[in-house]
């Protein structure tokens, strides 16, 4: 069975984006970024891979799932298929088709759809955002990879938007970087 990993940057107070969906307040670069690019090269958008000299094959994931609002910034920049090196699934209740044939728009129940994806052959599945989709998929998330930034923003898109239902995780790794970011890897307790 494939593994669903929620790999995302977060603030200390648990936000993955500002109140309007922006994430440019997260600093880029530094020792941590280089290590994470080396370990998770497939999480770098296709158009940036060449610029950064990334030629390595996918190491962890061959599919990415995201909510419509997570996908929209690339669309706004004129990029209709940000992760051409991955199978791309965008969950939306309002869109019916994608402007790019390499992206699958899914209007059905995310939980059932991802359960089916996990039963198919392949590498891991990367959940890259957003908070509402992560909340819907929480019962199927096998691993959290959180890039915890030493920032508090007070309001924004939460890491998970869901009703109260505790889900427990076990810390598997905690790796601090010189730029203040800590990579926290947790696995679901089942």
From TrEMBL:
Record-given protein name: Dihydrofolate reductase family protein
InterPro entries: DHFR-like_dom_sf, RibDG_C, Riboflavin_Biosynth_HTPR
Lineage, opening ranks: Bacteria, Bacillati, Actinomycetota, Actinomycetes, Mycobacteriales
Pfam families: RibD_C
Transmembrane segments: none
Boundaries of every Bacterial bifunctional deaminase-reductase C-terminal domain copy: 4-182
């Amino acid at each position: 069975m494939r593994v669903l990993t929620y790999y995302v940057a977060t603030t200390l107070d648990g936000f993955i984006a500002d109140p309007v969906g922006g994430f440019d307040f997260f600093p880029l670069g530094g020792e941590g970024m280089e290590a994470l690019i080396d370990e998770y090269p497939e999480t770098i958008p296709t158009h940036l891979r060449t610029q950064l000299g990334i030629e390595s094959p996918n190491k962890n994931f061959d599919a990415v799932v995201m909510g419509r609002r997570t996908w929209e910034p690339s669309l706004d920049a004129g990029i209709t298929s940000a992760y051409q090196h991955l199978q791309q699934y965008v969950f939306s209740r309002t869109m019916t088709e994608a402007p790019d044939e390499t992206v699958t728009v899914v209007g059905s129940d995310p939980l059932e759809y991802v359960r089916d994806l996990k039963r198919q052959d392949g590498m891991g599945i990367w959940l890259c955002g957003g908070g509402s989709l992560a909340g819907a998929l929480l019962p199927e998330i096998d691993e959290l990879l959180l890039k915890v930034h030493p920032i508090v923003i007070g309001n924004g898109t939460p890491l998970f938007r869901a009703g109260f239902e505790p889900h427990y995780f076990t810390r598997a790794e905690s790796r601090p970087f010189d730029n203040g970011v800590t990579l926290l890897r947790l696995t679901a307790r089942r």
